[in-house]
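Reposting from the mailing list since nobody answered there.

I have sequence plus structure tokens for a pair of proteins and want to know whether others read the tokens the same way I do. The first protein:
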Amino acid sequence: REPVRIGQRNISERQRRSGCLVLRGDKCVLARSKMSLSLPATDLATYETPEQAATRAVAASCDIYQEEVALLRDVAPAVVYDTSVDPPAIVSIFAALATGAPPAGYEEEESEDEDDLYDWFTFESALRRVSSVHERAAIRLLADGVRKAIDAGVVVPDYHCTFGPKESPGDMALFSPAPRSTPAPELLPVTVLSGFLGSGKTTLLKHILENKRGLRIAVIVNDMASVNIDAMLVNSADVQHKPEQMIELSNGCICCTLREDLLSGILDLQRQQRFDYVVVESSGISEPMPVAETFTFDDKKSGLLLKDFARLDTLVTVVDGANFMGQLNTVETTASTGQAAYEEDARPLAQLLTDQIEFANVLLLNKCDLLSAEEKGQALATLRRLNPQAKLYETVRSEIPLDQVLNTHRFSITGAEAHEKWLTEARHGDHKPETEEFGIHSFPWRRRRPFHPVRFKALLREPEMLPSSLIRAKGFVWIATRPNFAGIVSFVGSIRDLSQGQPWWAAMERDLWPEGLWDDLKDLWQEPHGDRMQEVVLIGTFDNDEIVAKLDACLLTDEEMEQLPWSFPDDLPVWQGDPEAADGDD
């Protein structure tokens, strides 16, 4: 046997894999496994070259014949390191072109079918959808290499190939590393899990950890109790399915008393530069909106803004399908159920559940195996009405492909800031009809005359005044004895709440109006009362005529409209800054 000569010795025993970035037009192939999307890749077999393994990976992962793929041997492969395994694996990703011509309209829209073994994705979408750092690095390197080879005439594709970032300085920065003197940290993506106790949040978290496929996930678990049971459950998993790091936030809620701890915890994880993702499991009484607002805060100790180091990716709410409809109608509060986050916390649970649903980007109707077809249909229809913008999935034991809850890029700070304008549908008239499954529908009620305070109070306080088929109502109201401010009503099941809103524009001097406001108001304005009106969106299975009659009965009559100035008895809760309501008592 010939001795190994100096310079030819290879003492590496690390795992080696080969994969392929298959390009066509402006898109690449990502293979779909049970839980995520990734570049086709496989371990090298004995006596197999890396190129052979790469084409075999495409055939095995995507069921694409090897003759349908042409390796670009004149483009250097991207050699990247998969550090999610120990020891790290050496992964060689080769560039290739699909030999078939793109179909008509191929570049106009992105194809995706969850039943297919693979789909085609643009450069930006591919970077979002793959879950591992080394795959994103390979996509960037090969896109740059293929483009340079085409520009130099080294590669002459049969069909136009434009895969890569858009030609703008911001996109080109993907190829140009920042100077060493001013490193730009990659934003750490965060998914927040919300949902009532028993809905399946912890089960979802364990499912994520059991199927993370090399993704380095840090976990923040919030528990109202001083002993964090959820954290203990997650840590009891075997080593393979444990998070890389866990932070326990106990004896409080991250949406109120522990917000600073959440902020500093995520900042600390980002500074370590060794995690691909953070999953936050909030307590059962946590509200997603205050958690999202935390990403706009700065750390009091360091002065650093969280949004400069981490990005909120997805807000997931897990809904307990077996108890959902009952929870919507409960009169229990955080205090009555022993879940108060602070001394005076007595939030209605039905309102809290609705807040968790309405602010989510992804909704999981869990425990679907415990529901009849009719019960499941009614729950799905209700969720679609409460939050038509969210992605809605049916789950059993919280099992879902990870790319539906991680790295979805569904959270938008712009959309979040506009959440209080929930009545966009009613105010701007841009509602599009939907199929009214199980009779659950939304109905905008508008009127240009005020409520009588006595009759309106009865509507709020007496359960029989509104039908039990009303699931949800929210909007702005005009009360005759309170001309300066709009009221905000929120009904969830049997819980009915009235709070003070913003001033009516008609109650303000015009020189205080922002520039351009009249252009927005002129179509709504009616003299002599200006923009004052009733705007309430109602959701449920009610008869429209019945609920309209009940609401209209609380308005001023024609005779009462003439009794100016309106000075009816008013013992609704007192509002600040409205002298007309100052004599009320509550």
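The second protein, same order (residues first, tokens after):
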Amino acid sequence: SSSRATLSEGALGGHHMEETPPPASRPGAPQRGARGAGARRGTEAAASGFPPFCRPRHFQRSSNVFVVPLWDITSRWLPPELARPASAAAAPRRDATAATEDAGAAPLAPGAEGTQDGNLLDCGNPSEGGVEVDAECEAALDGGEDGAASGSESEQSEVAWDGVVMGQDQVWTRAVVDSALVLMRRVTAAPPRTAAAVAPAASEGPEVRYGLGLSAALFEALGSSSTQQLDRRLTEVLQQREPSWFVCALRSGHFAGSVFRGPEAVVHKVIKRYTVRAKAGGAQSSKDNSTGKAKSAGSQLRRYGEQALAEEIKELMTTKWASEIAACDLIFVSVSKRMRSTLIGTEKAPYVAFSKVRKMPFMVGRPTFEAVKEAHLRLASVVFADEKTFEAMAAPFQAAAAPEPAPSQGHTPSAPSTAAAPKADDAREVVEPRRPVYREDEDEDFTSLHRAAADGNVEQIYELLDGGADPTARDGKGRVPFYLCASAKSREAFRRWRGMHEDAWNWQASQVPEGITEESEQMKKEKEKEKKKKLKEKQKQSKAKLKEEEEERKRAEEEEIRLLEAAQAKCDACGKPIVAKPFERLSFLYCSTDCVNSHRRMLQAEAAEKRFGGKA
């Protein structure tokens, strides 16, 4: 990089860095191209208090956040909350209200001490910790992408994840960025270390806060995780510049995996096998388990493909890449529950260390090397969101406030007393109410376009899009309308409308594939026509070739019979070739008994004629 990071004067702990701008961005230096949006993004990043390494190229327009890879972060940078001197940890603990205000959170209610450090739920083992699992956790565990009753390995939730899930917390919270679940922390922007910054505290303006987040897959599923534990994990990740990770995906007979050292792929491989039933969908093994084994040639090929795929993956994991995978810190997988044992083995016979395995909290399409590289970049990126965006992203995941208890008879609400306040021990025993089950009719963000897409109503989809409905709008679960399409015709409706209005919306954010236009349809028809023409010519040539081969075969058979007849012995009576065991009489060979008798009579007649003729 052309930029140089230097320690600013008076910085403590190495957590505050000033980045010297590259020569092309210094005053008076020549600029390459119009600054335009890049300059605006840089100004917005500075106004939001983001670190100087948040460049315009890192801005993600669809989510209004900066997404910075770990290898682009300035060396030794940490937010102020994570870079406090170690001596501060040994200081006496302050009261809960003061500690919460220093962390950037609202004051705790009386008696709620201990709930602010992270109200976490362990979806992996909900029985531990004495806290009920909310409905969203249950949906991620029971339904998910491929429950026991699911026959398809392609169904995945955009935000379902079986790791750390958080409740209402003013410091840490959940959020969704580009359909991926992340855990975000509210941090305070570091003040600039300049001469003007050493003015008295009275002259300073209000603190600037923003959100800092990482992929949820980087956090372990611990039911008792606190804010301090999450901060410690965040610090560990931010101090890594070249993480050693293994990223792999398995879906529909396609495997892709790669070992990464920082941004570079050390080894990578893609395997493709025929395992999915054409048009019907689903793996052959699922079909065999549900309706019995079929005896068709296609089913046998698919069974062989599944077996070969499993053997190749096992050999890759346990032999060829064993040393590279063992050296990795984490292993990220995208696979259905049914195929999980094929990818990483079982508990009794594991291919990799299960303690390192993390499930990707977003959906990976068809496994290719490009898809694996994109997934690795999303996992290794740090999210920076301004305070307004942070609040909007965290709002859908905040737990509803518990209703206040009704005052008892004779109690005056305006005269609180110290004795009436609940004790801290009693507050710890209070279990939060179960989060309400998600219902589409109660979701304010569930638009009419979402409903039309889910119902497969093609006419209504066209009407709503023509009327200005937003195809990029997300419902309360972070889903776009196209994601809910229940039929191929409804998906085609979105693509056709995109083809007619390519510049109307941000189609990448709407997840609608390439649009269908008259030109593309005409081109498709021409390709189909050309394909049929070539197929006809091929069939015609094949028929001609078969006819020629048949004639050649007949000629060869006739020639073979002729040569055989010439080589075989012939009957002395009829002159035909003897194809079976001959009949012998004297020195003669015959093909049948009739020929034996007829030839015998003929010889006797000739002998008698010679005798009588000689006497005369």
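Reply #1 (J.P.):
I read it the same way you do. Confidence is low (pLDDT under 50) at residues 1-35, 85-169, 194-203, 408-432.
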